[in-house]
Amino acid sequence: MDCQVDMDDGGLQWYEQIGRQEQFEDEERERTRLTMATFEIHRATKRRAKLRLGMSGPAGSGKTYSALQIAGGLGGRIGMIDTEHGSGDLYADLLPEGYDVLSLSPPYTPARYIEAIHALEDLGVSTIIIDSLTHAWTGEGGSLDRQGKIADKSGNSWQAWRQVTPEHNALVEALLQSRCHIIATMRAKTEYVQEKDERTGKQVVRKIGLAPIMRDGIEYEFTTFFELDVQHMAYTGKDRTRLFDGEIFRPDMETGRKLLSWLNSGVDGPRSTTVMSADQKTAMSDAINRASTLDDLYRAFSVAYRVANSLPDAEALAELTALKDERKALLEVHNDAEFGIAA
Q1: Three-state DSSP state, 204
Q2: d(CA 299, CA 112)
Q3: DSSP 212-235
Q4: Which of 13, 180, 230, 328 has the smallest number of Cβ neighbours within 10 A?
């Protein structure tokens, strides 16, 4: 009987169901229309670009030396973010023009890497060498370290990754959006193999480098990725320039010059002459003021920094930078030392 009563309601349930379906279809059509309106189709055009070069190799493969040689070939002022305990100064006499070193000490949070990148950009360098990017993943205060500490405290490993992954992604975004050439070195997992020496006929042990010690897939974020061996020879694991396909070579200044020629061979991209809108500035200011941790702050400021520079709007950048500095000072007072996120 109850079923009969439910069915004999004058069709109200049926009309309600149809109404909800029509509303959903109308909303879906509107979403589709708005999405389609944002599509941009244009003829493929090669534009001038900045270098995004990744390099990995085992200890002793010459990553720092090779990075400096390539940067020298690119020309312009060079800045190095050194996480290798002063190794950046060991090659002070390598380049006639010299280079600047920013020593980065623990904690190696993505936020501190982002701040170091911005500091060198503000200094006016043309090329930034990050030596090495591996510490942002496995070092003290790096993503793996932070994920482990958060998981230990919360008991939820998945939830910890939900917090750490955006921090890592913000660093990758800072690398890709920088107005400077970027050369990032990474340590590689090391393995030893035994093989026959063709000259002597004896078995010898050789050290080889495997995947970079970084989050899986990091090599695909770069335009070109070199893998170095202990003989300081490089081959390309990935190369969108197609300059080094199938080659095994020793990186030098000529490598940098070849890359620069390819990067400059396109047309200039369109330049915007507008300033940041009031709504944009308000939204970015709110995001900075709402930041509850230093990592949140640098994610918010990274977006603001990128937008202000792309316009370019120096006045808005100065305002947002001052706001970031005020928020940073406040957060450092209340910083949770257990997570090691102090800048």
Answers
A1: strand
A2: 11
A3: ESSSTTGGGGSSEEEEE-TTS-EE
A4: 13
Which of the four pLDDT bands, split at 50, 70 and 90, describes residue 252? very high
Is 257 in contact with 73 (CB distance < 8 Å)?
yes
SS (H, E, C) 162-193: HHHHHHHHHHHHHHHHCCCEEEEEEEEEEEEE
* Per-residue pLDDT, 302: 79
Give the contacts of 99 (CB within 8 A, at least 6 positions apart). Answer: 68, 71, 77, 78, 79, 80, 129
17 against 242, higher pLDDT: 242
Identity of residue 182: I
Distance CA 314, CA 183 (A): 26
Which pair of tokens denotes residue 128?
């930034």
Domains, the chain, with CATH or none: 52-263 (3.40.50.300), 278-337 (no CATH)
Residues 306, 328: Cα–Cα separation, whole Å? 19
State the DSSP H helix or E strand holding residue 316, giving kind and residue range, or none if neither: helix 314-333
Distances (CA, A) of 20 to 8, 11, 27, 33, 222: 20, 14, 10, 20, 47
- The whole-angstrom separation of Cα 114 and Cα 270 is 26
Question: What are the phi and psi torsion angles at 182 (to 5°)?
Answer: -120, 125
- Torsion-angle region of 241 (φ positive above 0: left; ψ -120 to 50: alpha; else: beta): alpha
- Segment 264-292, tens digit of pLDDT: 987 665 554 467 888 788 888 988 998 88
Angular region, 176: left φ>0, alpha ψ -120 to 50, beta rest:
alpha
Q: Would you give the distance in Å from CA 329 to the centre of its chain?
A: 25
Evaluate whether 304 touches 284 at the Cβ level (below 8 Å).
yes
Give pLDDT tens digits for 4-52.
Answer: 444 455 566 655 566 656 655 665 565 555 444 455 677 887 778 999 9
